[in-house]
Amino acid sequence: MCEELIAHVRKNEDGTWAAPHKLLAHLEDTAKRAEMNANKFQSGEWGKAAGLAHDAGKGRAEWQRYLKIKSGYDEEAHLEGKAGKVPHAIFGAKLGEELFGKQTGRLLAYCIAGHHAGLPDWSSAEGAGQSSLQFQEMQVKQLEDIDKSIIDIIGSARPTVPPWKFSEGLDLSLWIRMLYSCLVDADFLDTELYMNQEKADNRGAYCSIQELLIRFNNYINKLDISSEDTRVNAIRREIRTKCVQMASEDQGIFSLSVPTGGGKTLSSLAFALEHAIKHKLDRIIYVIPYTSIIEQNADVFRNAVGEDQVIEHHSNLEENDSTPKSRLACENWDAPIIVTTSVQFFESLFAVKSSRCRKLHNIVRSVVVLDEAQLVPADYLIPILKSMQLLVEHYQVSFVISTATQPAFKERIVGGKLFPGLKKMKEIMGDDKDIELLYQSLKRNRVQFPDDIYAPLSWEEIADQLQQYEQVLCIVSDRKSCRELHSLMPEGTFHLSALMCGQHRSQMIKTIKQKLNNKEPVRVISTQLVEAGVDFDFPVVYRAFAGLDSIAQAAGRCNREGNLPDLGQVIVFIAPRKAPMGILRKAAETTANIVVTNHEDPLRHDMYEKYFSELYWKANSLDSKEIVNLLDPYQNDLQECSICFRTAAGRFRIIDDSLQKSILVPFDKGEKFINLLKYSGPDRGLMRKLQRYTVNIYNNEFNQLLKRGSIFEVSSGIFALVSSAEYSEVIGLMVETSFDPEKFII
C-alpha cells in the first residue's frame, strides 16, 4: 500500500499527468534535508523525525481520495460526506506524540502541525481558539487509518534527549522555531524539486567564503592604490587592518566602535570574511535599519565580491534589480552574503509563518553584522538581546555590533536591577583608551551646544542663521518642524522627510551629493532619516536638540572626508517644538542631563554607555509586549509545554501595521505604474516597482483623505492619490497632521 500513496501530483506542459510524487519518497527525502539542516545545531535526529512525520496525515485513505478528486488526477474518486479541505498536518503531529511520547512528541508537534499554517499557540488563550495545537489535537479521534508502513517508517527515528538543557526564557521556543525552519525549508525544497525542476536547478552554486575573500582582497588592493593619500584614508586602512587581526578571535559578540566616516562598511566585511573562514562558517548577514541605505551598502559589497554573490532582502527591491536566482535566495537565505533590514531579521526570529521562518536555520553558522545598532527599538530590546545571546551560545553565530555610538547592550546593573544584556562582548578596536584615540584622530568637526539648553529659538531665527551659509544641512526631529522651517527658507532649499516616497528621496539625495561635489550652493532641511548611512559631507550642520546618538550621527554628515582646512561646524540648537513624545523625548531629556553635568565634551566616546544606560532605565519597558513571557513555558505551563508562538508573533511588530496605511503617489514613474495597476491588476513585478512610490500615513489621515476624495481604491485594498496636485515635487505628500512617518522608514 505504501508504494501507492501519493504526496503531490502535477501535469506536464502538454497537459498529461506526470508520474506522481510518492509519499514515501517525499517523507524520506524531506527527512534527509531536515536532518542535514538540524545537524548544524546538534539536532539532526529531531529534524529527521519531523521530516518523516510531517505528511503522515496524507497516508490516510480519506486524504488520498481528497487529493485525487481536488486535483482531477482520478476522475472516478469521490469524497464521502461534506466537501471541503481535508487536514493532514495535525495527524502527523498527534502521531508523533504517540510514537515518541508526550514530552518529546509535543516539541515536534508544534513544527509538524504548523508546517503549512504556521507555528500555533498551545491553548486557546489569547484568542488562539481553533487554531491552537490543543484544540486541533482534540479533533483527531483516531490514527489507525494512517497506513501502517508509514507509521513504521516514522518510528525508525530516534529523537531522545535535546542537544542541551534548556534554560528559562526564549531557549526552548527558539530551538523549536529553528527545528520548524529546518522542516519547512526541507519540505519546500523537496516539493519544488518535483513540481518545478527548472526552479530547483536555479538555486545555489555560489562562491565559497574563501573565494569571496580572494575577490575582496583584490578589490581592496586596487582601492588602496587608487584612493587619495589623505589622513582619513590612512586611518580607514588602519581600522581595516585591526578588523582582520581580530577576526581570528573565538566566536562570540563583538563591538566595532568607529566614528562615522571611518570606513565601517568595508572593515566589517573584512572581519566577517576572515572570521567566517577561521571558524568554517557559511555566510555573512548584514542587518541595516533603513531601506534607504541598504542599496548603497549592497552596492559596496557587490563591487567588492561580485554582483551575483550578494542578496538584498527588503521591501524596496524592484523586480528589475533582482534575478530569478536572487529571488529564490530571499526565500531561504542560502547565499553567502545577505543584506536585509532590522525589521526582516528580528521579526523573522519571532515569526510563525513558514514563509518567514524557513530561512532561520541558515542564520546558524554565520557572522551577523548589526549596522547602526543603536537604532534597535527599546520596546523589544530584551527579547532581541536574549535571542542574540542564544544564537551565539547554541547556533555558532558571531555578532558584530557596528556603530559610531555604541548602545549599552552589555549585561549590567541599571537602577539597582540587572539589565540582562549581552555577555562577554569584545571590542574590535581595543580598550577605551585606544577607542578614544581613534575618535580623536578622526575628529573632523567641532560640536557647539547652546549656552542655555532651556531657551528655544524661533524657526525664523534659525532660518536667518542658516541663510548665512552657502552649504548647510539642518536636521530636525519631526516632519512638521521640517516643513515649517523649510517654508521660511529661500527658494531652492531642499527638503527631505518620509512624506516623500522612496524614489523621490533617492533622487533628492543624489542631486544634493552632486551639488556638494561640485561646490555649488546647497541648503537642506531634513528629518533624522539622513542620520544613518546617507553619506553627506557638509561644512556646516545644524541639529535640533535630541538624543546624544542622533547628535553624533548628525555630526557624521559634517566634514565627513576631512577635506576642510579647519574643523567643520556642528551647531546644536533648541527648537521651538520639543521632540515627539515617547523614546525620542526621553532621549533628548537624557542628553540634557549629560550636557548639564559634563561641560568638557558630551560627545566623548565613553559618554554613550552612560547615555544609553540611562535611556534604557527610563524606558517604560524593554519588553513592552511581554514577548519573553509568552514564549517561556516556564512562565506558562511547563507540563504541557505551553508556548504562545502565534500570539507573540502578532505582538512583535517593530513597525505596527495596524496604525498605518500605505498609499501610492503619482511621482515620476509612479503615475504610469498606478495606471498599469488600475487596468491590468497587481502582479509581483509591478508591486515591487510600486514600493518605491508609497508613502505611509496614519489611519485617521487615511480616512480624511478618503472622505475628501483625495485617494481612490486602484485595486482591491490598494489606494492611490487621485491627483499629483496633492503631491509636491519639493516636499512630498501635501498633508498636515501630527503623524510622524519617520518611525516607519526602518
Entry summary:
By secondary structure, the protein is α/β, with parallel strands linked by helices. It has 4 domains: 2-201, Hypothetical protein af1432 (Orthogonal Bundle); 210-439, Rossmann fold (3-Layer(aba) Sandwich), CATH 3.40.50.300; 443-606, Rossmann fold (3-Layer(aba) Sandwich); 657-744, no CATH class. The protein has a 7-stranded parallel β-sheet, sandwiched between helices.
CATH architecture group name of the largest domain: 3-Layer(aba) Sandwich
Number of helices, where a helix is a run of at least 4 consecutive DSSP H or I residues: 29
Total individual domains: 4
Radius of gyration: 28 Å
Low-confidence stretches: 316-322, 738-746
Topology:
Blueprint (H helix, E strand, L loop, with lengths): L5 E3 L12 E2 H17 L4 H10 L7 H11 L17 H12 L1 H12 L19 H6 L9 H8 L15 H25 L1 H5 L7 H18 L4 H16 L6 E5 L6 H15 L4 E6 L2 H15 L4 E4 L10 H9 L4 E5 H7 L5 H4 L8 E6 L9 H14 L2 E7 L8 E3 L2 E3 L5 E3 L4 H10 L3 E4 L10 H8 L4 E5 L3 H9 L6 E3 L5 H16 L4 E5 L13 E5 L3 H8 L12 E6 L9 H15 L9 H12 L8 H5 L13 H7 L8 E5 L5 H11 L3 H7 L3 E5 H9 L3 E5 L2 E4 L5 E2 L3 E2 L13
Parallel strand pairs: 3-8, 3-11, 4-6, 4-7, 5-6, 7-8, 12-17, 13-15, 13-16, 14-15, 16-17, 18-21
Antiparallel strand pairs: 1-2, 9-10, 18-19, 20-21, 22-23
Helix pairs in contact: 1-2, 1-8, 2-5, 2-8, 4-5, 5-8, 10-12, 11-12, 23-24, 27-28
